[in-house]
Amino acid sequence: MEKSESRIDFEKLKEIAEGCETVLVKLPDGLSQLATGISDFLSSAGVEAIISANPCYGACDFCDCIDGMGVDRIIYVGEAEMPYLRKKYPVPASFLEVSSRFDAAAAVKKALPLLEGGRIGVTSITPYIHQMEKCLTILEEAGFTPVVGKKSRRTAYDGQILGCDLSAATSVSDIVDSFLYIGDGYFHPLGLSMSTSKPVVIADPSQNRATDDIEKAKERMMRKRYALISNAMGKNRVGVLVGEKLGQKRMELAHAVKGMAEKRGMKAYLVSSNNFSPERLDYMDVDFYVSTSCPRIAMDDSDRYRKPLLTPIEFEILVEERKWEDYEFDQIL
Amino acid sequence: MEKSESRIDFEKLKEIAEGCETVLVKLPDGLSQLATGISDFLSSAGVEAIISANPCYGACDFCDCIDGMGVDRIIYVGEAEMPYLRKKYPVPASFLEVSSRFDAAAAVKKALPLLEGGRIGVTSITPYIHQMEKCLTILEEAGFTPVVGKKSRRTAYDGQILGCDLSAATSVSDIVDSFLYIGDGYFHPLGLSMSTSKPVVIADPSQNRATDDIEKAKERMMRKRYALISNAMGKNRVGVLVGEKLGQKRMELAHAVKGMAEKRGMKAYLVSSNNFSPERLDYMDVDFYVSTSCPRIAMDDSDRYRKPLLTPIEFEILVEERKWEDYEFDQIL
């Protein structure tokens, strides 16, 4: 608790909440232990906090029914803004970013010997994005030319990538030799590798290590995705998932998938939810699902479902509107 | 599937959906296998169905983010209307009630020898409410005087009770000798027994049986509730749960609970959600919870939580604003 709390910029929190009577506080799972501390602090500043116990996976994630709760402002803790959603929240939203305490520079130094070529596309994610400048300096001092792609409508910072928006990488892919990913996990670098086909080196500050072992993970993932598509082959009944969250709602895409299915004589069902889960979907008498919601749902959670759960791009491959060779990461651009 | 489908009044469904381009179909868990059949039928009538995969526990349960989805009408399957919510849904809502195929008359006949006194308060729940008339006739023919309480702002039929609204019983409690409950489960008859202190006989059509064994269940329940209150005693940090669902949002009550807690020197935290679950609450550094959302959450789900989960009335007992002897069922009236 103590350790985590010190990461919150309480001065900024106070500024954000100023003039509000009631704010809704949204935190991702990893920061949820901060909720009561934030509520205490706001209370002492004369602001009432309502802690949202709905899951929160980013600035795209808003599906809270706050009518009549007197909420003046939504405060996302640990998330960066998605600029294009600014005017779409029911009340103004602010973003109290939380920087990681892990040193990105140390991990980047370990990554230097692994980098291929001279021009390096540099990408990172919200917890580490504020350490970008010092990482670029390290690269320059080592003789590399770092290239940082511009932010998009869904990202707040140059070089920032999301699981659903890799444009800071794809936009510079043609002019770099390889990519450096500063962050944890394999999901983002897998997306980088898939969407750019360039070598990717991971500098993971949380583990203070660097690696270029992404190819094996990519192979494993592709085998799994191929198996899911194969399992759905020849099946006739498809549930098309529509996410109800503010920045994950792709109704047009859902209709397009449904249309493609029906063109092939399949039965297609639109299924919406604010939080998809096996408990609510396994019962349906469909053969497989295509998720138009957050790309991670199909990529990370498919093991939890009894039936194949595909991305829209994988569905295109299934109905032969796209070749397996043209496999792409699903993005919300 | 076949068996269940035949219970749907497709003529009425067609009427309800007439003129709509897109409808949102909401079903409780027990009827979810009907979803694709309903979607097929609507599709053949030129109406697009979006199946909500959010849980649905009644007409009170609306927290679907349907902006931009083109929904013209919400169709609740298997639920009766809550009249006071009629104008609160974001688009018009209709209610396609589904009558149980089980014969209520047979169960009521079995209940006759168990009834106490001559004036019998008769109550039922949505799946059986349409069999009320024939049940009343059976009672009259057996020499009883059935008494049916009026519907409320939350119920669509005279004699209909909800877990959160027992007014069709409490309103006639003074003028009856005992109650007959026509329906399944023990939750509603427990509420009846608690809120009226009159003898309660259960006629359960789904099991074709009648029983007056409610007292034991009541004792068990009261012991459990007492233990939960005891476990919370002397504790200082309370999470006050606010349900985000349309008919379960009791913000004023939440503030009242918070106020009572703070008056006693406790720390109180407002926590909102569209679906409370242990996964999202167990992490919080509070000692116990008070739920102002659906009364069933505290009553049915408390075993699933690591920390005591109380009703607002139980909290009043805890802080000695109410005596244990004045225990009441939590209702949303």
Describe the structure in your own words.
2 copies of one chain form a homodimer. The first copy, chain A, is of the alpha/beta class. Chain A has 3 domains: 2-96, 3-Layer(aba) Sandwich (Rossmann fold); 104-212, Rossmann fold (3-Layer(aba) Sandwich), CATH 3.40.50.11850; 217-326, Rossmann fold. Chain A has helices at 2-5, 10-17, 35-44, 104-111, 132-141, 167-170, 187-196, 214-232, 251-263, 278-281, 295-301, 312-318; strands at residues 22-26, 48-52, 73-77, 93-96, 119-124, 145-147, 178-182, 200-204, 209-211, 237-243, 267-273, 288-291, 309-310. In chain A, strand 7, helix 7 (187-196) and strand 8 form a beta-alpha-beta unit. In chain A, helix 4 packs parallel to helix 5 (132-141), helix 7 packs across helix 8 and helix 8 (214-232) crosses helix 12 (312-318). The longest helix of chain A has 19 residues, at 214-232. The radius of gyration of chain A is 21 Å and the shape is flat. Mean pLDDT of chain A is 95; it is low at 1-6. At the A-B interface, helix 3, strand 2, strand 10 and strand 11 of A face helix 3, strand 2, strand 10 and strand 11 of B.
